[in-house]
Amino acid sequence: MHLFADIRSTVLDALTQMQAEGALPAGLDFANVAVEPPRDAAHGDMATNAAMVLAKAAQMQPRAIADVLAAKLLADPRITAADVAGPGFLNLRLAPMVWQGIVQAVLTQGTDFGRIDLGKGLKVNVEFVSANPTGPMHVGHVRGAVVGDALANLLAFAGWDVTREYYINDGGAQVDVLARSAYERYREAHGLEPEIREGLYPGDYLVPVGEALKEKYGDSLLDKGEQVWLSDVRDFATQMMMDRIREDLAALGVQMDLYSSEKALYGTGKIEAAIQTLKGMDLIYEGVLEPPKGKEPEDWEPRVQTLFRSTAHGDDVDRPVQKSDGGWTYFAPDIAYHYDKVQRGFDQLIDIFGADHGGYVKRMKAAVSALSGGRVPLDIKLIQLVKLWKNGEPFKMSKRAGTFVTLRDVVEMAGADVTRFIMLTRKNDVALDFDFDKVLEQSKDNPVFYVQYANARVNSILRKAREAGVDVSDAALAAADLTRLDHAAEIGVAKKIAEWPRLVEIAARGNEPHRVAFYLYELASDLHGLWNRGNDDVSLRFLQEDTATSQAKIALARAVGVVICSGLGILGVTPAEEMR
Predict the structure, then answer these.
(1) DSSP β-ladder status, 46-48 and 35-36
(2) What is the pLDDT of residue 289?
(3) Does 72 map to a domain?
(4) pLDDT of 315-339, one tens digit each?
(5) Where are the beta strands (DSSP E) in 152-206?
(6) Pair (449, 543) in one structural domain
(7) 3-class DSSP state of 380
(8) Helix axes of 500-510 and 547-571: crossing angle, nearest 10 degrees
(9) Same domain, 90 and 196
């Protein structure tokens, strides 16, 4: 049940009727007609902009449209008032039975309440994390992993066919550095002093790799040139790092559907095929780029390169795909990888990148636009940095990692559920402070505690009711006399519940899972507020002497719990049954 969508349909039906009666001209486009909460709750329960957006095309005054529309809408028993405001906005008030019906709908539909078919089964690929396989995942990867996984959950809830994909960046020079670093740990495993020279990875996490290399190769690689061992050690170390990354993701509750390898694109003709496809569109040419911004002329060495005409698809400048020495640029395999995703039949692509990839957005969108003929949209979400704090000071690096705080550090200290929720308390493109002390404190200022406490309170109400002999099964609560929910505070909670399907729609359209976390905090706040009012007004307490009244009030609390559990499921957070 999507109440806002239902009322919008009622508005559209009324507008269509007005056309049939000659009160509106035919041929109007209703696409921009919206029904949403008013900016000021005192003005009503919902507002529609219908008269405002149709006035120009209809060549009519907005208020003239709104007056007729208001009269039409008042024929619906759900609508008790339709007031024209300002130049032509229409504010609506709904009958209490509507909000009471929302509670019944939640108890009947369970966690499917709010599930919508916005995606209509279209295939969407969400690529996220995609860390270099050169070490354990760090705190920056945590946020990207959580945002990507929660977004995938959200889109699935909203009707898309979702694939979670990890792109293994194992085709560049960094994996050779990994191999050389692992080889030094292999020497160390044989009792030799490792030479961790500048440019190698210093973390202790490679010690087990060196020991595993010793177990597999014995001393056969000692004192050999890297032309002998580089390839084997690189593959071995990369596989061990990917095993570690999979374990780290599992600790965070993330399971990928597919892992794709950059290395697998080389020597297979896939890069060449993608570039050739662009060449067939006259989008590949030989040319010389202008000097980058900020470069003095004497610092710039013009050279002929193979360029992608990305400006034809919205980029600022054309981009090199092949260097003058014949080698591919970093951009070329990424083009091939995204072309592969297009060829696999995805209807939409989403990439979750670190903030340092900001310069990559336009070129990648241009490539996908060209290779899909504009059919497949690509949305790129940039993840800003996470700043860690503890005891009022910046949290220092991990000795195990050598240069950064690992994902495992964060999860072990805060827990996966807390970590996931907190990572979604800011929009992805805003920096986030993660204070270990604050995220674990039990207060209203800690959003994850506040939401979990609300769910625990609902479960406490249910337990006490059962002990009192009250039937609190969902079927019994759905059949309760919900007209007893007539206090403004109770109706207010029901109104917040009614926003859930609309929130899912808005969040899914914008690929913004953080909106779910915001909404859950607001819903929890409304429940806590109702609970606290019951301390002074006994008529608002959930358990009453009259069983029928108790069931109605408990039905409201249970509906809140159902929606919280549904929302936490999207965030990948386990609901708390009780707080200790």
Answers:
(1) antiparallel
(2) 85
(3) yes
(4) 999 999 998 888 899 999 999 999 9
(5) 161-168
(6) yes
(7) strand
(8) 10
(9) no
Q: Is residue 272 part of a domain?
A: no
263 φ/ψ angles, rounded to the nearest 5 degrees: -60, -35
CATH of the domain at 461: 1.10.730.10
516 is a domain residue? yes
CB atoms within 10 A of CB 282: 9
What is the separation of C-alpha 88 from the centre of its chain, rounded to a whole number of angstroms? Answer: 36
Q: What is the b/e burial string over 343-382, where b = at least 16 CB atoms within 10 angstroms of the residue's CB?
A: eeebbbbbbbbbeeeeebbbbbbbbbbbbbeeebebbbbb
Residue 481 lies in a domain: yes
Q: 210, 231, 252: which is the final residue of a domain?
A: 252
Average pLDDT over residues 165-192: 95
Q: How does pLDDT run across 393-418, given as a tens digit for each residue?
A: 888 755 555 667 889 989 999 999 99
Q: How many CA atoms lie within 13 A of 475 on its CB side?
A: 0
- Which DSSP letter does residue 95 get? -
In the numeric block, which tokens belong to residue 428?
């992805």
Q: Can you list the positions of beta strands (E) in 363-403?
A: 378-383, 386-390, 393-394
* Residues 88 and 187 reside in one and the same domain: no
For the segment 531-540, the average pLDDT, to the nearest whole number, is: 95
Per-residue confidence at 340, pLDDT binned at 50, 70, 90? very high
pTM for the full predicted model: 0.93
Is the confidence at residue 30, as pLDDT, over 60?
yes
According to DSSP, the residues that pair with 432 across neighbouring strands are 386
Whether residue 178 sits in one domain with residue 88? no
User: Strand 258-261 relative to strand 161-168: parallel, antiparallel, unpaired?
Assistant: parallel
Q: Name every residue whose Cβ is closer than 8 Å to that of residue 580 and which is 6 or more positions away in sequence.
A: none
What is the mean predicted confidence (pLDDT) over 87-94?
A: 94
Q: What is the pLDDT of residue 296?
A: 61
Give the angle 106-107-111 at the CA atoms, nearest 5°.
Answer: 60
From the list 259, 317, 323, the residue with the least C-alpha distance to 289 is 317
> Domain limits at 448?
443-571
Last residue of one domain, picked from the residues 200, 233, 252:
252
CATH number at residue 10: 3.30.1360.70
Q: What is the CA radius of gyration of the chain?
A: 29
Structural domains of the chain, count: 3
